Structures are given as structure tokens and as C-alpha cells.
Amino acid sequence: MKSDITSADRHSRGRGSASRPTSRFLPLRYEALPPDGWEEDEDRPALQTRFFRDAARSIITCNESPDVGFDAGINPYRGCEHGCIYCYARPSHEYLDLSAGLDFESMIFVKEEAPELLREELSRKSWEPRLLGMSGVTDCYQPIERRLQLTRRCLQVLAEARNPVSLITKSGLVTRDLDVLSELHKFGAVRIGISLTTLNGQLARQLEPRAASPERRLAAIRKLAAAGLPVGVNVAPVIPKLTDEEIPSILAAAAEAGATWAGYEFLRLPHGVQELFTEWLERCYPDRCEAVLARLRASRDGHLNDSRFGSRMSGTGPYAELIGGMFRLAARRHGLDRPMPDLTAKHFLRPGDPRQPTLF
């Protein structure tokens, strides 16, 4: 039931991948939402996004990675309509017998009972309150969140329980939830990271066709900072010969908007993402394709990916060290070299506790 990679056609306009899905399921609903922050135009994609119910029995997933900063996370959605061509999460759709290409960005699985499942899991005596990450796999503020509000309702559960959460997103929609985020902040239980890959609008639309525009992301940082919320910027991914020279300007813009810390991640291409990204380069930047891939191999021990903990986020070798040095220098110059704020679970109240107030 896997989809084969094919050449781009009219159905892939406005998408990150040029791969065309071949499998069909009974959809939950159809949506045709405009990309966040972009003007409507005649190039709206012909391929419609389909949504399916994910009958998950649990919502908190655990990991043993020392690279991500949390060992438990929440993902209300599987697949992501943002369509970022480089997304390391694309291969997760292959576990559903779907492709990492267009299937990943046009066939979205929705955990409709996520808030209820979260409340149930936080209520268990076995739950030890600790930091939860949101958007560890797919963006919790992708377009369908406007309608379904699963992320907002999960945040409401976390706010009532005062359980700490770390959010990262490419969407300006996060500012919709200022009220809930502010409630979490009262107890030192939230921080927000805005992922910013490039300030070049044309490049952003090619790389991340349905994510918010760079201007919309900077506006989100500004609004979150103005509300007194802890917000930082994640320069991710850094793409050799394509976005690497923008590191100083991205950090300058983020600092001006009110970000107080910064991080970065070097491009990584696990499994089938290598083929998808190479295909995208050949289609969109054929003159740079070989140079980009050569730099990647030089920073990944001769390969396009390195899954080893400790090096997969930053790369190795002279070029990777150059990128790290450039980032650290620019972060220091703009006051973004401070650590992310620590969060606490000391105020946690188990849902159902008679001392627990009802907030929302």
C-alpha cells in the first residue's frame, strides 16, 4: 500500500513533496484551509488534505533521546500539513503503510480524544509529573488545529494540572492560546520556541509551503514576548549552501522581536527523506544540488544522515564546526546565548484532586 515517488504534477502544487499518494481511506472530513500568512493565489494545490480518526488509546509517548530535552511528549496529530520537505518525521507515516512524501502532508491522522486521554493519564497515581514536549514529531499548531482545537484543549488540561510543557511550532496560531499559556506561566510551567528556517519568503514557501510565513512567525514571537511569556527561536534546520548564511540575520530579527534564547539544528535526512529532499533540490535549486549534498556528506561522515546521539543535531567536521561557531557568535552578539528557562512541576495538582480548581 506504499506510494511510489513520482515526478511533480499539478496535484503537488503548493506541497513540499512531489510524491503522489496512491492509497485511499474513508476520510473523517475534508478541509481546504489557506496557508498561514500567505496571500491567496491561483496556485492553490489541487490535492485536498484528508483527515482520519486515530483511535489512540494513550497520548503520552516516551523517548530515550538525550538530544531533545524531554523524555515524554504529546502529539495530537500524525502527519503534518505544513509539508516541510526536510521534515525528519516523514518516515513515521511508513509505519501506517503510507509514503513519507505527499501522504505525510495530505493524510493527517487526528487523535480526537487527546484531551480526555491526557486527563486520564495525568490522573493516574503512576504518573510522575515532569516536562512534556509538544510538537516533538509533527506540529501541534498545523492548520487543522484552527478548527479542532485539540492542542488548546490539551493545554487547558495541562494548565489545570500545572504540569510543565515545552512547545515548539512554525505557526502563528500559538498566539490564539495566550490565555492558557499565561496560566501555565504563573506556575513556571511553559516555554515556547518558534522555529525559523529562513527570512526569505520565496525560499520559505518552497521549503515549508503551508507553514506560517517568516513575518508571521516573527510577529508571533513579538506577541508572546509582549505578553511576558518565555519565548525563544530555533534556527532549524540549517541547510548548507541554502540557509546557512542567514544565521546572523535570523537571530538579529528574533532578538528584535523579543526572543530571549536561541538554538539550532543541522539538517538531518533519515531514511526516505534523503530521496525526497534530493528530488526537491533537483526541482527547485538544480544549480546548488550537488554543492548542498556534498556539504551534508562532509558533515555526516560521508553520508546524508547520522542518527548517532550527540552528533545528529549538529553534524561533525570542519564545516559543522564553522556553523556552530557562527551561531554561538551571533547568539552572543544579540543576547540569545542564555539557556532556556527551567520549568518546574512542583505545583502539580492531579486532575480530580478536590483541591483542584476548574479554570476553563
Looking at this protein, list some descriptive labels.
360 residues; alpha/beta; four-stranded mixed β-sheet; 30% helix; globular
Walk me through this protein's architecture.
With 360 residues, this protein is of the alpha/beta class. The protein is 30% helix and 13% strand. It is built from eleven helices and eleven strands. The protein has helices at residues 102-106, 114-123, 145-148, 150-161, 178-185, 201-207, 214-226, 247-257, 273-284, 289-299, 318-333; strands spanning 29-31, 49-53, 60-62, 72-74, 77-78, 107-110, 132-134, 165-169, 190-195, 231-238, 262-266. A seven-stranded mixed sheet has the order 3-4-7-8-9-10-11, with helices on one face. It is globular. It starts with 28 loop residues before the first strand and ends in a 27-residue tail after the last helix. The model is unreliable at 1-11 and 20-32 (pLDDT under 50).
Short description:
This protein is α/β, with parallel strands linked by helices. It has helices spanning 102-106, 114-123, 145-148, 150-161, 178-185, 201-207, 214-226, 247-257, 273-284, 289-299, 318-333, and strands spanning 29-31, 49-53, 60-62, 72-74, 77-78, 107-110, 132-134, 165-169, 190-195, 231-238, 262-266.
